[in-house]
Design a protein that fits this description.
heterodimer; A: mainly alpha; two-stranded antiparallel ribbon; 12 helices; 2 strands; globular; B: mainly alpha; 11 helices; 2% strand
């Protein structure tokens, strides 16, 4: 275990050094990840000028959800970029994943260390900016509980999205090619929970409650932070299930990953 | 010209072989369409019509914007860029054909396959789910294919331009991403332009992007007609010509800079 950490640490430092080699193109990529978030959020904010609210939620309240999701997803995308299904699928297809398997070192640490997308700092910064904007529009009455719980929610979201990345990566063991579908889980999941969940039809909400417990990651915690009543009438402890849901998805994804590893057959390239 | 269509034919054949990827893309665009419809309908709430766009219009918009992703390569196209980095560009430049036309012929093949297998098919699938709007008048029906073709031409010329950056820098992907994201916002891909405040629309109209997608959308849902329609098509055409011209000029400069290392 200690050995794996040391190895991960070393792989990371190599990654960072190589990414910072071309300073200008690194900066450009970082700004471009921020630019995406900026324009996507701007498009929502501008349209809100016309509508005022979405099923009772103001721009400030939606921005809180949105900023939370962007920040957590960006952090996850940086740390777990080795498991990014697009990238990982490519390494399975090209057979470079097989090289990692041949080394007598923890495979998860190796995959984690195979990429660290520092350029996501741009996305993360924007996510935090949107959160700040949300707080400016819509001041939260902070309590000690809320202050302590916010980082827990962010960490749970990282685990949750990380789990989705791992599931997506594992699926490429079998599908090799058609990885675009996995975007439904990852980017689709983050898109859906960037908006208050009560706006969706029941079947969609049930999918993201019982099959993928995304609703506990941001929506219920947001109700708690924003002191809003729960229109879905879940138990009062629902906002505090965020870490449980995050851990559950992460544990399930790890089980799936190890199952996949056991049954992995190389493409032979 | 024969060479052009030969290349297009080959490209069509090549893209028809990516069956699994096409299906996967279709499913993804379909599900995202459902999600976007859900959000936009919720945003409309009680409103029946906003800025001339009805509820069924906004639903059609959400479906249409997903249907054209593959056709217009909205999420990125770096083939030309990569060919510069791998050195294949040397062989491409030697071909007895204008470099721009060479890529255009191939992109045409890609676009045709994606228009039919992803665009049209998606709209058919969506029409089982929702009551979709269609053009109202014969003139709108006639203008639609023109707008769709000009939209592709505009998208291709834009992608060609930003890919040329590869001739100037060893890693132009970041630069390319800027170009694509810009087009998402100003083409009305993220939100229909009509729903934006006036100043944003005015800003968008200074760029070529509205004519990639927004014009097609407005035509499709029937809010564009008469003189405004004629003007939109004309502007589309002018932007296409402008960008093609710019592409030719930049290409000449790019090729002059190019150094191929033998080996």
């Amino acid at each position: 275990m200690r050995h794996s950490f040391e190895l991960y640490h070393r792989l990371l430092s190599v990654q960072l050094r190589s990414q910072l080699q071309y300073r200008f193109s690194f900066l450009l990529e970082m700004f471009s990840t921020a630019f995406v978030v900026l324009l996507e959020f701007a498009s929502i904010a501008l349209v809100f000028e016309r509508f005022g609210h979405i099923k009772g939620w103001s721009l400030g309240e939606v921005a809180f959800l949105y900023g939370l999701v962007e920040t957590a997803f960006g952090l996850m995308d940086m740390v777990f970029s080795g498991f990014d299904p697009q990238r990982f699928g490519q390494s399975v297809r090209r057979g470079t994943f097989d090289q990692l398997l041949l080394r007598p070192i923890n495979i998860t640490a190796q995959v984690m260390g195979s990429d660290f997308a520092l350029r996501r700092l741009g996305k993360i910064a924007l996510g935090i900016g949107i959160l700040a904007y949300a707080l400016a529009l819509n001041p939260i009455t902070w309590t000690l509980g809320k202050i302590l719980y916010l980082p827990v929610v962010v960490a749970s979201n990282i685990l949750f999205f990380g789990g989705l990345f791992v599931v997506g990566a594992t699926i490429t063991f079998w599908t090799v090619e058609s990885i675009e579908v996995i975007n439904i889980l990852t980017y689709g999941g983050s898109f859906v929970i960037s908006y208050p969940m009560h706006i969706y039809q029941q079947w969609m909400r049930h999918f993201f409650t019982y099959l993928v417990p995304a609703i506990f990651l941001t929506y219920f915690p947001a109700l708690y932070f924003l002191d809003k009543p729960d229109p879905l009438h879940f138990p009062a402890y629902a906002p505090f299930l965020s870490p449980a849901a995050g851990l559950l998805v992460w544990a399930a994804s790890m089980a799936f990953w190890h199952f996949g590893l056991k049954h992995y057959q190389s493409t032979g390239t | 010209m024969r060479l052009f269509f030969e290349l297009t034919k080959q490209s069509i054949r090549r893209h028809l072989t990516y069956r699994a990827a096409t299906l996967a893309g279709l499913v993804t665009n379909f599900v995202f369409g459902l999600m976007r419809v859900a959000v936009l309908v919720a945003l409309y709430g009680e409103a029946q019509e906003v800025e001339g766009i009805t509820v069924s219009g906004i639903i059609t918009y959400a479906c249409l914007s997903q249907a054209v992703i593959a056709y217009l390569s909205m999420f990125g196209w770096y083939e030309l860029m990569n060919s510069v980095y791998t050195g294949e560009v040397a062989a491409d430049l030697l071909k007895p054909m204008n470099y721009f036309s060479y890529w255009m012929a191939q992109d045409l093949g890609r676009a045709i396959v994606n228009l039919l297998l992803r665009g049209v098919l998606l709209m058919v699938l969506f029409s089982f789910m929702f009551e979709l709007d269609t053009p109202q008048t014969a003139i709108q029906w006639l203008a639609l294919p023109m707008a769709i073709i000009l939209g592709w031409l505009l998208s291709f010329s834009w992608r060609f331009l930003i890919n040329l950056a590869a001739f100037w820098t060893p890693n132009a992907v970041g630069f390319g991403r800027f170009g694509f994201v810009l087009s998402w916002f100003f083409s009305g891909f993220l939100m229909p332009l009509r729903l934006f405040p006036d100043w944003t629309v005015d800003l968008a109209n200074l760029t070529p992007f509205p004519h990639m997608l927004n014009t097609v959308v407005e035509l499709y849902i029937g809010v564009l007609s008469g003189a405004a329609l004629a003007q939109a098509l004309l502007m589309q055409l002018l932007w296409v010509l402008g960008l093609i011209l710019l592409g030719q000029l930049l290409m000449k400069a790019a090729v002059r800079r190019l150094v191929i290392l033998g080996g």
